[in-house]
Write a structure and sequence with these properties.
The chain contains two helices and three strands; from the N terminus they run αβββα. By secondary structure, the protein is α+β, with helices and mostly antiparallel strands. The protein has one domain: Ybab, Chain: A (2-Layer Sandwich), CATH 3.30.1310.10. A three-stranded antiparallel sheet has the order 1-2-3. Helix 1 runs antiparallel to helix 2. It is rod-shaped and about 60 Å long. The relative contact order is 0.16.
Amino acid sequence: MDSMKQLGDLKKMRDQAVEIQKKLADIRITVEHKGVTVVMTADQKVVSISGDNDLEKVKEAINESLKQAQKVAAEEMRGMMGGLGLPGM
């Protein structure tokens, strides 16, 4: 019986992970950095880049957008893990 419960728990975790992936794809993050605006999804897909064409500024803006997307994803994952009642999470 214990292995059946574990399988059920794994399925629940997988379902929640899929749900979070879909949610992250719908969240838009907009970062304006040194004259460059980057719009990115929380699952780290670039939607658009506009503004200054200086490649160094564009790179910095993308990196800042990635940091923000990672923070949002971490918060979403923390919420999922807390809901599972797993020790140490």
